[in-house]
Specification:
By secondary structure, this protein is of the alpha+beta class. Helix content is 33%, strand content 23%. The chain has helices spanning 17-29, 52-63, 108-117, 124-128, 131-134, 137-143, 160-173, 204-222, 226-236, 243-252, 299-319, 367-380, 437-441, 445-455; strands at residues 3-5, 44-47, 73-79, 89-91, 96-99, 102-105, 120-122, 149-155, 178-183, 188-189, 258-266, 277-286, 341-348, 354-360, 396-403, 407-409, 421-426, 429-433, 468-472, 474-478. A hairpin with a 2-residue loop joins β17 (421-426) and β18. The longest helix is centred in the middle third of the chain and has 21 residues, at 299-319.
């Protein structure tokens, strides 16, 4: 197993399990009154990420709110301090992260699904050099007693289209068994932070005025107001390092999500030195993430469809003939017998290059039959490629897209990248893109529609006038 070891243990926090647990016990015993009561069933927390001697006790106030929670995974949204990252979320390449308390597996399946909907790259060097995600791992290990996996995501800056992809992807993948951790310190005050609107001499008045700025920003976070939070940062210039992760979370929240601010302090408080200081806040809240649609495919249904797609591909390639579409119908789970459209996509495992993709959009037959038939077609009859050869089978990754029925939209402006598949029809020409195409390529909407027009055999700008569009959603899963 490829392990991403801690680069902070023994420096930013204690280096042994005994010392870590002793420090947490000291925080627990500290007589500190929270500013507000933590909400019941908290599944969203905002944590600072300075060294524990500075911000650990503040972070613990929010960690306590999820202590013992039965979460299967934790998604950590964290900012980048040392590497310029643009229009990407950076995940680890490693299969697990390690602290003195043990290892935590990285949820690579969840990451794979995220990568189909949002711009994600994987880089261990970025994670090894970044403290904002690492500092939270042992806190989570202390709080969550049951085994859990982690999805660490480091963010930089985003254009609106790319940010929207990430927001929609996060919102669609979060569930009741997932804890969302947003890692951020608040205002950094001092000349070396290029933020000294109240002078460089420090003093309690500086601390008060900085706290007012942070309180205004926190009030917008507590209210779940992304636009208001961004407006405060823009107007005040507040040096909140995790402003991008905070904005992503706020925009992904379902309606009605609110947080409570549990504690606020600064690194200057112990000594009363406010010539240079960093501010920390701990928050907790509950997001009522939408439940999966009734009748949605479960893990066993997906595994069955991938298995039969693989068998159908291999049979077609080795014999040159497809299996009957009804071949697997007798053993099919009930959910796979519903009438649905389906596409089967074949990719090269090593390069990710497309090797075949054929499907049917309309729900004209049971899903199990559509997958069986289209798997063989993708291997043998995609007109863009030569038929798959037997020697290629081991190097292919099979992907299935189970489609919801398409619906017409009045304009291309209603298409939401990352959520919607789309069809374009004009002058007797037709083309379709699955929902994952634009995120995989990193295209914005205009670029996507230009390529869709060309796929239909039309000029790149043909989508702008006279074209008709339909959209559909898909459940996408792969080996």
């Amino acid at each position: 197993m490829k392990m991403l070891k801690s680069t902070l243990a023994g420096a930013w926090y204690p280096g042994t399990e005994r010392e870590i647990r002793a420090m947490a016990e000291a925080w627990e015993k500290a007589q500190v009154q929270d500013e507000a009561a933590a909400p019941a069933h908290a599944n969203v927390i905002v944590l600072p990420h300075a060294g524990w001697s500075y911000s650990g006790e503040t972070a613990w106030r929010a960690v306590r709110a999820v202590r013992g929670g039965g979460f299967r995974r934790v998604v950590v949204l964290a900012p980048s301090h040392r590497v310029w990252i643009e229009n990407r979320l950076v995940a680890p390449e490693a299969e697990a992260v390690e602290t003195p308390l043990g290892s935590i597996p990285v949820d690579r399946d969840w990451l794979d699904r995220l990568a189909l909907l949002a711009p994600v790259i994987r880089n261990d060097r970025v994670h090894a050099g970044e403290h904002s995600a690492q500092i939270e791992y042992p806190l989570l290990q202390l709080a969550l007693k049951k085994p859990f996996s982690v999805v660490p995501l480091i963010a930089g800056s985003f254009d609106p289209d790319q940010r929207g992809m990430c927001v929609r992807a996060l919102a669609s993948l979060m569930d009741a068994e997932t804890l969302l951790v947003v890692s951020s310190d608040f205002t950094h005050y001092g000349s070396d932070f290029s933020y000294v609107p109240y002078g460089t001499k420090g003093g309690s008045d500086v601390r008060r005025r900085v706290a007012e700025v942070d309180s205004e920003a926190c009030a917008r976070i507590v209210a779940g107001d992304a636009d208001g939070f961004c407006a405060v940062v823009e107007r005040t210039g507040a040096t909140i390092c995790g402003r991008v992760p905070i904005e992503l979370a706020l925009r992904a929240f379902p309606a009605g999500c609110k947080l409570a601010r549990l504690r606020y302090m600064t690194s200057g408080d112990p000594e009363g030195d406010y010539s240079r200081f960093v501010c920390y806040a701990a928050m907790a809240g509950h997001a009522d993430w939408p439940k999966p649609t009734a009748g949605a495919l479960g893990a066993e249904d997906r595994a069955f469809l991938l298995q039969i797609a693989r068998e159908a591909v291999e049979h077609a390639v080795r014999t040159g003939k497809p299996l009957p579409a009804t071949h697997f119908a007798g053993s099919a789970p009930a959910a796979t017998k519903r009438r649905m459209g389906a596409f089967v996509t074949l990719n090269d495992r090593s390069t990710g290059a497309l090797r075949g993709c054929i499907g049917e959009i309309l729900p004209v037959r049971p899903l199990v039959e559509a997958v069986t038939a289209r798997a063989a077609d993708s291997a043998l009859h995609d007109p863009r490629f030569s038929p798959v050869a037997p020697g290629e089978l081991a190097g292919l990754r099979v992907e299935v897209s189970a489609l919801m029925p398409p619906k017409p939209v009045a304009s291309w402006r209603e298409i939401v990248l990352g959520r919607d598949g789309m069809t374009l029809e004009k002058n007797g020409r037709f083309a379709v893109f699955l929902p994952q195409v634009a995120p995989e390529q990193g295209w914005d909407l205009a670029t996507t529609l230009s390529y869709l027009s060309q796929k239909a055999g039309l000029p790149p700008e043909a989508w702008r006038e006279g074209a008709m569009f339909e959209t559909f959603q898909a459940d996408v899963f792969h080996e």
